[in-house]
Design a protein that fits this description.
The protein is of the alpha/beta class. It is built from six helices and nine strands; from the N terminus they run βααβαβαβαβββββα.
Length: about 250
């Protein structure tokens, strides 16, 4: 059983304006609830959390019981406390998986884990996006077609301010001609990180079977393969020396 926590700032869906109405057309109970319902599986224990919840949704007992954290944020990045980001970073370094979605590229935790601006170009035009699978052998790409089309979305375009060790496994082409590294993986400490851009709040992208297949695969890829270390920044003292090697004979 993989313990997944889906964190959503949950601001757009409750806004009392036209934007909020558009969001509720596709996510009446919030993006986090839609993802929980659409990703449900017997081998996943999925919990949800929002910024307005106590301790910004991630008290120690929940965070320390999470194998994979999925993160969606947009307008409230600065409201996430640095103390919480510290805790999440420590948990990722210890082996917890982190999946960052869409506008979460500018979240504090993604910037912290990449050490970069994570800036990009964007355009709100409702154009179509063709997502190309460029590493079909990667576990996240298992069962994903060579390409799939998101009919309407927000354009994200290059240059994308991420580190050189970010490995692209999906690249998108947009109707307006832009391209973007829309799915990249990284590793920090013992933790695996996946960023995936398709998922704007006013379009039904998190109901798309191909997008859900990618996210489902990503959860299983990012899940820790060993117990998560509580203190990954420690420098343990090796009290016992290994047996000396025998002399090398030429």
């Amino acid at each position: 059983m993989i313990k997944v926590t889906i964190w959503n700032e949950f601001r757009h869906e409750v806004a009392q304006d036209r934007w909020g109405e558009r969001c509720r057309e596709h996510y009446p109970n919030g993006i986090h609830i839609a993802l929980k319902q659409n990703l449900a599986s017997e081998d996943l224990l999925i919990r949800t959390a929002t910024l307005a919840d106590p301790e910004q949704g991630l008290p120690d007992e929940l965070l320390n019981d999470t194998d994979v954290l999925m993160w969606w944020g947009h307008v409230a990045h600065k409201e996430v406390s640095d103390a919480l980001v510290d805790k999440i970073q420590n948990r990722v370094l210890g082996g917890m998986g982190l999946i960052v979605l869409h506008s979460g590229h500018k979240s504090k935790i993604f910037q912290r884990m990449t050490g970069c601006s994570c800036a990009l170009h964007w355009r709100e035009a409702g154009e179509s996006e063709r997502v190309w699978t460029i590493d079909p052998a990667h576990p996240i790409c298992k069962g994903v077609p060579p390409y799939f089309v998101v009919e309407r979305t927000e354009m994200y375009g290059e240059p994308f301010g991420i580190p050189e060790d970010a490995k692209p496994i999906f690249i998108s082409w947009y109707q307006g001609g832009d391209v973007f590294r829309s799915g990249v993986t990284l590793q920090r400490g013992l933790g695996k990180i996946f960023y995936f851009s398709p998922g704007h709040e006013t379009f039904p992208i998190y109901h798309d079977p191909n997008v859900l297949k990618v996210l489902s695969n990503a959860i299983r890829w990012a899940a820790p393969v060993m117990p998560i270390m509580a203190d990954p920044l420690s420098c343990p003292n090796a009290v016992e020396s290994p047996e000396p090697l025998p002399p090398y004979v030429f």
